[in-house]
Amino acid sequence: MRQTTVILRRMRLALLSALLLPAAALAQPKLVVLEGTHLDFGKIYRGEVIERSLTLKNDGTDTLVMGTIGVSCGCTGAMATAEKIPPGGKGALKITFNSKNFDGPVHKTVTLHSNGDTSGATMIEFVATVIDEIALSPASIILPDAEVGRMSTAVVGVTNNGMTPLALTGFRTQLKGLILKLPADAISPGGKAEIRVEFTPEAPSPILTDGVFVTTNNMHQPEVYLQVYGGVRRAKTQ
């Protein structure tokens, strides 16, 4: 009788374990991006920094643990607001995109690593079209043979791709000795003009990496940026 009771107890324990094991095995997190993983940011004017906030939801039955977040280039930033999300809970993913170095269609990705995807990673893709109403050619100022006390010159072409006349109203830079001579008249839509660059350096610099902001009357691009590259050698002795 006692042996029969022991056997029955073992059978009940085995049955209870069999019932509990599948439930434990099925307990897992599930990451869902409520806005979807394919996004269209639409039209962006060059120089704009776009910010988006996406909702991350844990549709699973266990705690969602966020890992590293990868981006496809330095122009894109991404940050999750929570490292752990309980079952049924929500968090946020902040995405930023800096359009200053782009023109035309762009396609970028953000990769979320977590325990909420069977592959270990969830990829979010976004597209946009960057509109450049003020085109500069070249897009940077190159001064390879600058010399202390001697003026070097360059020319940058400006094309107005906008729908209204474009006025270049001023410039600002921390590079001593750099002067921009801007067009006196507004540039008509579709028209072109030139920026004349004059640089008289005060001190030698083997590697020159600086820049200059040009202010405009364009509501979409109130400033455009020109990178300055080159080098400055010492003045030649007589």
Overall description:
The protein is mainly beta and 238 residues long. It folds into two domains: 31-131, Immunoglobulins (Immunoglobulin-like, Sandwich); 134-233, Immunoglobulins (Immunoglobulin-like, Sandwich), CATH 2.60.40.10. It has one helix at residues 2-26; strands at residues 31-33, 38-45, 49-58, 64-71, 76-80, 84-85, 90-98, 104-114, 121-131, 134-137, 140-147, 152-160, 168-173, 178-181, 192-199, 205-216, 223-233. Strand 8 and strand 9 form a beta hairpin.
Largest sheet: 5 strands, mixed
CATH topology call of the largest domain = Immunoglobulin-like
**Residues in helices, as a percent range:** 10-25%
Q: What is the strand arrangement across the widest sheet?
A: 2-9-8-4-6
**Total of helices:** 1
According to CATH, the homologous superfamily of the largest domain is Immunoglobulins
Gyration radius, in Å: 30 Å
Catalogue the unreliable spans: none
Q: Which H/E pattern describes the elements?
A: HEEEEEEEEEEEEEEEEE
What structural category characterises the helix and strand content?
A: mainly beta
Q: Tell how many strands the DSSP assignment holds.
A: 17
| CATH architecture designation of the largest domain | Sandwich
Which features does this protein show?
Immunoglobulin-like, 54% strand, 17 strands, mainly beta, elongated, 2 domains, 1 helix, 11% helix, 238 residues, 5-stranded mixed sheet, 4-stranded antiparallel sheet
